[in-house]
């Protein structure tokens, strides 16, 4: 049934909202909004007495960002985007960052939801800055507290220069600060971002290309780390069901002109702050480093694409579907503190639940990148094999040895202070070892002697870096 707003109702609504700080996003008419007025503050000045522990680990891994495209991502907690963090207005966040980088990178944190100095005032004669947002060295940890004083949806990211490179390689996520009085609804979290892979893979993996990042020449523009993932696994809601989208644009450079085809936004809240209501918008531009909350209610069953309306980039992967279906599952009763980004924040992050999101494609670390040219191109060339490690990467993703006779592997570890080894397993599950090489802390060389193996295709890896230093081992 269509709602008819009379002139009298309009002036009644206006008279009720004069002097009101905020009208809640739950209401579906100006009169109802006015009745709920001033239930939520646009900010608080004091903590609410609740402390929430948030722990992130900076680490590198492999993620499939498009079908068959395996990218060497830099992450928080092993995924790009990082987990969706949910806290409440006034919570004290007790934050810990552990730098678990295996390629010797400094990392840091920048919470757009926090009020905290980027750096402390330097001491006279100090050679380096200190403070909450300053770099953390590999193997070290930083802990600090901040109070979530503004409600909304915010970006968090690594801030180590060049920040462009750290964000474009995957070090970002969304943090939601829920205001008091926000009506329970079905919710989804979308993080827009760009990927800039090099022209061709290196040992089966694409690395970020800084020149492309500087030229703003993305190969992919995506929601939640994977191109087009919500076309095959749409976000599901029911007809006439109020639902909420929290959208963050991690960039690092492009504006996301967020639009849902076939409907309008009931209400739009820039930065997700309830003090910023806008009504009936068709498209809302989210700048890099910003976010917005959208309230929707779609009456008719069907498929409704969500896109960036900057169509030079839409076809690069920034298209998903909202499926309005009477048979859609029940809305969750609550959402986790740390949400799985691939489930749009609906299910717990893998660190909490031990697996990826349910009902959506969860990209996983690739333990065995495909060798360049295929396994057939990797053939034995003698009984002495050579492999080296530098920047926590093997120089090859395929080794080959003759069948039925012993052979040696000469391993050169070129990473100072970093332990590596070469071990051979029957398959990428690494459940059964055929040979385990001695750990060598570089720089240095070691020669392994391996007993004869039967002809077949196996798997090798560094046991210290089992997801990023891997390859195929051919015996034939």
Report what the structure shows.
- The chain has 476 residues and is mainly beta.
- The chain is 9% helix and 37% strand.
- The protein is built from 7 helices and 31 strands.
- The chain has helices spanning 7-17, 30-35, 163-168, 210-215, 229-232, 311-314, 350-353; strands spanning 51-66, 69-76, 84-88, 92-99, 110-111, 141-147, 152-157, 172-178, 186-195, 220-223, 235-237, 243-251, 256-260, 265-270, 278-281, 283-286, 290-296, 302-308, 319-324, 338-339, 384-390, 393-394, 398-401, 407-413, 419-420, 423-425, 433-436, 440-441, 444-450, 456-461, 470-475.
- The strands form 7 sheets. A 6-stranded mixed beta sheet has the order 10-9-12-17-14-15, with no helix packed on it. A 5-stranded mixed beta sheet has the order 5-7-8-3-20, with no helix packed on it. A 5-stranded mixed beta sheet has the order 11-19-18-13-16.
- Strand 21 and strand 22 (393-394) form a beta hairpin.
**Inertia-based shape:** globular
**Over the alpha carbons, how many angstroms does the gyration radius reach?**
25 Å
Mean pLDDT: 87
Give the class from helix and strand content and strand pairing. mainly beta
Helix content: under 10%
SS field, number of helical segments? 7
Widest beta sheet: strand line-up: 10-9-12-17-14-15
Main β-sheet description: 6 strands, mixed
Head-to-tail CA distance between termini: 72 Å
